[in-house]
Amino acid sequence: MLIDLHAHSTASDGTDTPAELVAAAVAAGLDVVAITDHDSTDGWADATEAAQRHGIRLVRGIELSCAAGGISLHVLGYLHDPTYEPLLREMDHARTSRTERARRITAKLAADVPIDYADVLAQVHQGATVGRPHIADALVANGIVRDRDEAFATYLYDGSPYYARHYAPSAVDGVRLIRAAGGVPVMAHPFAAKRGRIVADDVIEEMAAAGLVGLEAHHPDHTPDQERHALDLARALGLLVTGSSDYHGTGKVNRLAERTTPQGVFEALVGRETASPLVGA
Ligand code: AMP
Ligand code: ZN
Ligand code: FE
Ligand code: FE
Fold it and tell me: How far is CA 66 from CA 55, 69, 72, 80, 190, in A?
């Protein structure tokens, strides 16, 4: 069984539509794929329909933006009730703040390079969660950089003079909200320092105490040392260990199935909740 539990669609900053993501998962030989857009479940319906058509198992998920002590972090949530109001409110708040933050980043960039917010909006699918990758795409479209990677390396990295933050719930609240919605929270790329500042282990301990179920130790952005540290911490805290690609389509080099989760771990994750809205064969 090939299982990839972290992938993005045009409902956030991926370049494949939800149906294209599912088709790409089939083409990559996956048996199970999760759709985990940033702060949004908008891709679920189309992905579900496509998964039924293709006979692949889809795990409906999100990647919830969170923060701890001014450090941004991401919590994957699987199989939760998408109508649970308290979680919806936090995701709405984060999405609104992301849009406003993209305006601020773009305004700072506009002082130095030819770009305006309309260029960014032109890169965002209707209703999608706005992220820095959309600003990157606008920089590419305007001929300022070659690709998303160069945009991040030059202009959009954490700590860049053009960087700005957005609202996000605390990590502990994020874990609690996903649990309260009947979902399974797994911390994404916990030690991927190349993306920006990472939290100390005690934050993850607090998240574990709040109901965190797993750590995504196997992730393309982890060095071998970071992966090992995640494995050690997961063992110490009694957390499950997942592996995923964090596929974003053509915009980011990650390939579907380049990291995977063993079947036993997947079954343990799904088994954490009784309601398991999995679809497909
Ligand atoms: P944001 O959510 O707006 O803070 O932007 C973070 C998103 O940008 C994450 O989904 C990352 O996968 C993506 N990202 C970070 N670094 C890069 C990079 N070098 N190239 C492409 N995408 C990136
Ligand atoms: Zn993303
Ligand atoms: Fe992430
Ligand atoms: Fe992601």
Answer: 33, 10, 6, 17, 12
Tokens of 149: 């990677």
Which ligand minimizes its atom distance to the CA of 187? 3
DSSP 8-state code for residue 130: P
Q: 14 CA to middle of ligand 1, Å?
A: 10
CA of 152 to the centre of ligand 1 (A): 7
| Residue 95 and residue 40 in contact, taking contact as beta carbons nearer than 8 Å | yes
- The residues that bridge with 13 in the sheet, in sequence order, are none
Surface-to-core class of residue 186, CB atoms within 10 Å of its CB (0-12 exposed, 13-18 middle, 19+ buried): buried
Strands 184-187 and 214-218: parallel
Classified as helix, coil or strand, 214 is: strand
Cα–Cα distance measured from residue 110 to residue 116, given in angstroms and rounded to the nearest whole number: 6
Q: Is 97 helix (H, G, I), strand (E, B) or coil?
A: helix
Bridge partner list, 58: 33, 279
Closest atom, ligand 1, to C-alpha of 157: 16
The helix/strand/coil state of 71 is strand
- DSSP, collapsed to helix, strand or coil, labels residue 207 as helix
Q: b/e map of 40-67 (b: 16 or more CB within 10 Å)?
A: bbbbbebbbebbeebebbbbbbbbbbbb
- Does 216 contact ligand 1 (Cβ within 6 A)? no
Point out the residues of the chain with pLDDT beneath 50.
274-281
**113 token code pair:** 């390079």
Closest ligand 1 atom number to CA of residue 194 = 16
